[in-house]
Specification:
Number of helices: 3
Number of strands: 6
Distance between the termini: 64 Å
CATH class: Alpha Beta
Order of helices and strands: HEEEHEEHE
Strand content: 15-25%
CATH topology: Alpha-Beta Plaits
Shape: elongated
CATH architecture: 2-Layer Sandwich
Length: 110
């Protein structure tokens, strides 16, 4: 009987830990890709940024290129708004911010 009580306790603790890990949401982060208008700037490949995150022990769950959705003045040397977007665990957000990444929220449709 005592063994069954221990097994029930272990099962309960295990399910609690699994639920806590599963409840932790993922977040999206981004950083500009380095491109500038009129062909200026140098594009930073998404694979390079992903490797930078991996070097900091941040697991990347998804990676894609995108645009910040903001209006930028038409001016040579100005930002294009092109960004690299990554999905990571929320526990890694502060470490990513130290690398210059910011939380990403998709632009709202008008």
């Amino acid at each position: 009987m005592r063994v069954l009580s221990y097994l029930a306790a272990i099962a309960t603790i295990s399910l609690t830990v699994i639920a806590a890990v599963a409840a932790e949401p993922d977040v999206q982060i981004f950083r500009p890709d380095g491109t500038l208008q009129c062909g200026m700037g140098k594009k930073i490949p998404i694979a390079d940024m992903k490797a930078e995150l991996a070097k900091a022990h941040i697991d990347v769950l998804n990676a894609r290129e995108g645009n910040d959705g903001l209006m930028h003045p038409m001016l040579c040397g100005a930002a294009t708004g092109n960004i690299n977007i990554f999905t990571i665990a929320s526990k890694d957000l502060e470490a990513a911010r130290k690398l210059g990444f910011e939380p990403y929220s998709p632009p709202k449709e008008p």
